Amino acid sequence: MTTRRDAIRALAAIAALPLVERLGATELEDVWRRANTLAAPRALTGAEYQIVVHAAERIIPRTTTPGATDARVADFIDVMLADWYDAPDRARFKTGLGALDDSAITLTGRRFVLADERQQIKLLETLDRELSVRRQTREAGADDHWFAVLKHLTIWGYYTSRPGIVEELRVQLVPGRYDGNARY
To answer: Of 53, 81, 114, 139, which cross-links 43 as Cys (Cβ 3.0–4.6 Å)?
Structure first.
């Protein structure tokens, strides 16, 4: 039986291929270095950051392996938004977080981060269904929808993090450095 995590792992492997071309290993290492030294969010407000923490953990929850929170995915997302996304894309993402919070208040009477796990999942599943419809109807900009960006960055951040690589994918990292341009 295939679990949701198995499906995400397979999709992550497929999705990672074109991403490697856009953001090379050195650049990705730099993003993670900055994410791991993050004192305070740079692109997100404290409230937005907490929404990302909770949403990412619902997308990749802790099970027998680490979840998105363990992998510090929210820090990764904040660094990506601050350093790699332009102002309109960042604004669209932040507006989406606000809309998620508003939807949570309407549905539960509480902000997204104060809603219980079941309610948070219900809200995210609704967004996921809406995104699927947009993609199936080939709606322009569907892949740029803020929720598509959240899912993309959550999966990318998780599966390029040390917990994602070592504990989830069980890849043995070899110490040292590979330099393909070394003199011989």
So the answer is: 81
pTM comes to: 0.74
Whether the Cβ atoms of residue 78 and residue 93 lie closer than 8 Å to each other: no
Instruction: Render 92-134 in DSSP notation, one character per residue.
Output: HHHHHHHHHHHHHHHHHSS-GGGS-HHHHHHHHHHHHHHHHHH
Residue spans per domain, the chain? 4-168
Cβ-proximal residues to 141 (8 Å cutoff; 6+ apart), any chain? none
Please report the DSSP string for the chain in residue order: ---HHHHHHHHHHHHHHHHHHHS-HHHHHHHHHHHHT-SS-SSS-HHHHHHHHHHHHHHS--SSS--TTTTTHHHHHHHHHHHTS-HHHHHHHHHHHHHHHHHHHHHHSS-GGGS-HHHHHHHHHHHHHHHHHHHHTT-TTGGGSHHHHHHHHHHHHHHTSHIIIIIIS---PPSS---TT---
Question: pLDDT confidence of 18, banded at 50, 70, 90?
Answer: very low
